[in-house]
């Protein structure tokens, strides 16, 4: 005769309580109790006899960042974990039954933000929240991204103090199907992730502009199912990603109130204006992260052009002079110089378009970039071979004595 899931979980609850009485803290720390040997297997057998769970064998479990087959062993493990954590067996079974029946749930993206220091929780809008890492929900996701245990205490994994994870969390909430057959609906998934990404970008831009030294940068992120059936450790299908870029060298103090106002102002912009300002803010953030002044100067120069020259169409003399000098340096004859001249003009147009609009969609300009890259390489090799940079380009172009 097969065992009953409720009876098994009640048996586990009794054993957990007995253990807590026999080995109270600090004699044994919380979480020391483990389910008896092969208890998970017994519970899997009991769950497989229930129609609501037996139908899951061909289903997949989805988060924002991962897909995995539904595994009754993981579901049994989630039930065991919740009962050991003090949830009544009937409530634990009710919650998981509701999740697998509805097959959709609230979810949230959890992101680790470096480069800023934030005091208190800031709700930028409904479902978009900035907070100190220890204020984020206590889950394995928080532990993985921020090295914080269930109580919010730091976990030291042999790293030096200066290598500690970021102290600020960004949470973006939404809703999605978490259990389904076959592949996920990629069209809906893209719309969902694009929406989360746009909220993330506005949040980072608002943080950057809220404090003089703020350089917000996401080091890693994951997603989590926002449902009571989901235990601290999840269902064994968590995926997370890391980001590569210019890592901030220090933290800036963010003004939460100002960040919220700026976030709303970014929302109110037209798509075109928002794109320009988001890209400009990204460059501003990068400029604050560079250890060398020369790199910061380059990025700040881009920022100023994106802000103050975004409406300029004709670059006039600068565009012409750049192309003329390249043609003189690289062209062997008239027709050859014309090819170089046109290519470099288009490369300058591409750079200007990217700088002034924050976007580059003209396919002709995009296709020209590889050739322009080669010309730049050729030019540097010729200059290196000559041993010096030209001191008087006008004289050289006119084939006059450079001195």
Structural class: alpha+beta
Q: What's the gyration radius in Å?
A: 29 Å
Taken from the alpha-carbon principal axes, the silhouette is: elongated
**Percent in strands:** 5-15%
Distance from N terminus to C terminus (CA atoms, Å) equals 102 Å
Number of domains: 2
Q: Biggest sheet, open or closed, and with what strands and sense?
A: 6 strands, antiparallel
Strand order of the largest sheet: 5-6-7-3-9-10
Specify the number of helices.
Answer: 14
Q: Any low-confidence stretches, pLDDT <50, length ≥5?
A: none
H and E string:
HHHEEHHEEEEHEEHEEEHHHHHHH
Number of strands: 11
Let me know the average pLDDT: 85
Residue share in helices? 40-55%
Structure, described:
- With 403 residues, this protein is of the alpha+beta class.
- The chain has 2 domains: 5-242, no CATH class; 316-397, no CATH class.
- The protein has 14 helices and 11 strands.
- The protein has helices at residues 5-22, 39-48, 51-54, 72-84, 89-102, 140-146, 186-210, 256-268, 271-289, 293-308, 316-330, 334-357, 363-386, 393-397, and strands at residues 59-62, 67-69, 104-114, 116-117, 122-125, 128-132, 168-177, 179-181, 217-226, 240-242, 252-253.
- The chain has a 6-stranded antiparallel beta sheet, sandwiched between helices.
- The model has no long low-confidence stretch (mean pLDDT 85).
């Amino acid at each position: 005769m097969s065992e009953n899931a409720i009876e098994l979980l009640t048996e586990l609850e009794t054993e957990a309580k007995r253990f807590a009485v026999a080995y109270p803290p600090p004699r044994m720390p919380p979480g020391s109790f483990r389910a008896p040997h092969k208890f998970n297997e017994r519970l899997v057998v009991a769950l497989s006899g229930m129609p609501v769970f037996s139908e899951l064998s061909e289903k997949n479990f989805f988060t924002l960042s991962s897909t995995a087959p539904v595994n009754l062993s993981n579901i049994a493990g989630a039930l065991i974990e919740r009962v050991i954590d003090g949830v009544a067996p009937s409530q634990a079974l009710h919650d998981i039954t509701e999740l697998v029946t509805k097959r959709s749930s609230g979810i949230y993206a959890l992101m680790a933000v470096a480069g800023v220091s934030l005091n208190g929780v800031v709700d930028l809008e409904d479902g978009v929240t900035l907070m100190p890492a220890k204020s984020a929900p206590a889950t394995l996701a928080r532990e993985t991204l921020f090295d914080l245990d269930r109580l919010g205490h730091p976990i030291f994994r042999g790293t030096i103090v200066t290598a500690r994870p970021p102290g600020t969390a960004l949470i973006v909430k939404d809703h999605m199907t978490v259990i389904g057959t076959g592949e996920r609906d990629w069209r809906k998934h893209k719309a969902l992730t694009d929406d989360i990404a746009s909220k993330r970008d506005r949040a980072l831009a608002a943080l950057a502009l809220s404090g003089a030294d703020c350089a917000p940068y996401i080091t890693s992120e994951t997603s989590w199912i926002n449902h009571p059936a989901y235990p601290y450790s999840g269902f064994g299908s968590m995926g997370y990603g890391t980001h590569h870029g210019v890592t901030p060298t220090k933290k800036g103090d963010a003004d939460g109130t100002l960040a919220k106002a700026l976030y709303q102002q970014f929302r109110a912009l037209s798509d075109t204006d928002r794109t320009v300002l988001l890209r400009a803010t990204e460059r501003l953030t990068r400029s604050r992260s560079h250890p060398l002044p020369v790199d910061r100067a380059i990025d700040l120069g881009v920022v100023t052009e994106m802000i103050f020259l975004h409406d300029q169409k004709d670059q006039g003399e600068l565009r012409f002079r750049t192309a003329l000098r390249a043609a003189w340096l690289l062209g062997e004859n008239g027709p050859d110089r014309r090819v170089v001249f046109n290519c470099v003009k288009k490369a300058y147009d591409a750079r200007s378009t990217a700088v002034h609009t924050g976007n580059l969609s003209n396919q002709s300009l995009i296709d020209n970039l590889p050739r322009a890259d080669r010309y730049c390489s050729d030019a540097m090799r010729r200059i290196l071979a000559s041993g010096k940079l030209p001191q008087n380009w006008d004289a050289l172009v006119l084939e006059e004595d450079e001195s």
